[in-house]
Design a protein that fits this description.
The protein has about 220 residues and is mostly helical. It has 7 helices and 3 strands.
Length: about 220
C-alpha cells in the first residue's frame, strides 16, 4: 500500500507522486493494481491492423501510378485514386474521433463530394471524369471505411443493418451509370459494384441470422 506523509492517506495503484498534493509517496512494497485500469485506445488496440491497412493503401497508390504510366499515359486517373485513398483516411480519422452517427456522416460526405465533383466537371466543360472516376472511387472508399470502422468500433447488430443498407446504396449508384450508358470508362464502376456485392455477401453469410433476429425484434414479428 502506498502512503502520503503530507496528506496522511493511503493510496491504491502505482502512483509515483500523491494525486492530492503532488508530494513524493512512500512505497510499502505491497503494490496494488490501479483502481482505474489502463484502457487502450482504438489506435493502440488495432495498431497492427491499421499499419497493414496503411501499407495496403500505399501499395494501391503505387500500383495505380505504375499501371497509369505503363498502359494509359494519356490520362491521369491514378491521381484520382490517390486522392480517393487520402480522402478515405481523412474521413476515417474524423469518424473515429467523433464516433457520433457514423453512417449519416459517411453518407453526407459521399453526397457532398459527389456533387462537388459533378459541378466542377460541368464548370470546366464536362469531360465525364466525375462519373467515370470520382463517384465510383468515393463510393468504393466509403465501403472500405464502413468495413474498417465496423472492425475497429465493434458495432452491434442494430447498426449493422444500417451499414448493410449503405453498402447497397453505394453499390447501386454506379449501376445506374452503367445501365444508362453515361460512362466512358467502366472499370471503376465495375470494381465499386463488385466490392458492394462482396461486402453484402459477407454480411449476409456471417451476420445474416443476427440481422434476422434484430429485424424481428424491431418489427415485433
Amino acid at each position: 500500500m502506498l502512503y502520503c506523509d503530507n496528506c496522511k492517506v493511503s493510496l491504491k495503484g502505482k502512483h509515483q507522486v500523491c494525486p492530492l498534493c503532488g508530494g513524493i509517496i512512500q512505497n510499502n512494497e505491497d503494490v496494488t493494481e490501479d483502481v482505474f485500469p489502463n484502457i487502450p485506445t482504438i489506435y493502440q488496440e488495432f495498431n497492427m491492423f491499421i499499419r497493414v491497412m496503411i501499407l495496403i493503401s500505399i501499395a494501391a497508390i503505387i500500383i495505380s501510378f505504375a499501371v497509369n504510366i505503363i498502359f494509359t499515359r494519356d490520362s491521369r486517373w491514378s491521381l484520382l485514386v490517390a486522392a480517393a485513398i487520402a480522402c478515405m483516411w481523412l474521413s476515417m480519422f474524423f469518424i473515429l474521433r467523433k464516433k457520433n452517427n457514423i453512417p449519416k456522416t459517411i453518407l453526407w460526405q459521399v453526397v457532398l463530394i459527389s456533387l462537388l465533383s459533378v459541378l466542377w466537371d460541368y464548370s470546366i466543360g464536362w469531360h465525364g471524369w466525375s462519373l467515370d472516376y470520382v463517384i465510383p472511387s468515393i463510393c468504393f472508399a466509403a465501403m472500405i471505411i464502413i468495413a474498417i470502422t465496423a472492425k475497429l468500433l465493434k458495432i452491434g447488430v442494430g447498426d449493422m443493418i444500417i451499414y448493410f443498407l449503405l453498402d447497397g446504396i453505394f453499390g447501386f449508384i454506379p449501376i445506374i451509370f452503367i445501365i444508362f450508358g453515361g460512362l466512358n470508362v467502366l472499370f471503376p464502376s465495375v470494381i465499386c459494384v463488385a466490392t458492394s456485392a462482396i461486402n453484402l455477401s459477407a454480411i449476409i453469410l456471417f451476420e445474416g441470422d443476427n440481422i434476422k433476429t434484430e429485424l424481428k425484434k424491431r418489427m415485433h414479428i
